[in-house]
Amino acid sequence: MVGAAATVWPLVAQMNPDAATIAAGAPIQVDLTPIAEGQDIKVFWRGKPIYISHRTKKQIEEAQKVPLSSLPDPQADSARVKEGHDQWLVVIGICTHLGCIPIAHEGNYDGFFCPCHGSQYDSSGRIRQGPAPANLAVPPYSFVSDTKIQIG
Predict the structure, then answer these.
(1) CATH 3.20.20.60 fits 19-151, yes or no
(2) What are the residues facing 31 on neighbouring strands?
(3) Among candidate residues 109, 69, 71, 72, the one with its CA nearest the CA of residue 89
(4) Residue among 54, 97, 105, 117 flagged as catalytic
(5) Known catalytic residue: 117?
(6) The Rieske domain covers which part of the protein (predicted)?
């Protein structure tokens, strides 16, 4: 029995994508269960930092109340999250100004702050202040279950 398992294991292991394949853009799955309300985590997909934010009720309400006419890159909060999952924000953590990596839960809008040149994003990842011309990008993702997403 042990000999059979030892023979089969390399065959099974080679079916898993290697690190180069994952870096090239293979989809990744992320378990949301350990992310507490109000917490952000950073994962990497295609070599890019991806922020996954478990937004609080207050953050969601603030993001939904912002008049679109006040935004440099107008986009409704509902267009940046998946329906029925308003508490989860998934964005590519690259500042749209010069490609720096912003810091989560910083700045004037309880969102993201890029210390390099002062761009500030809200809790929906929308640019609110500073030189960045656009919102943080939302990567392609979907909910596999209520507690797991697939990016890519």
Answers:
(1) no
(2) 148
(3) 109
(4) 117
(5) yes
(6) 63-150
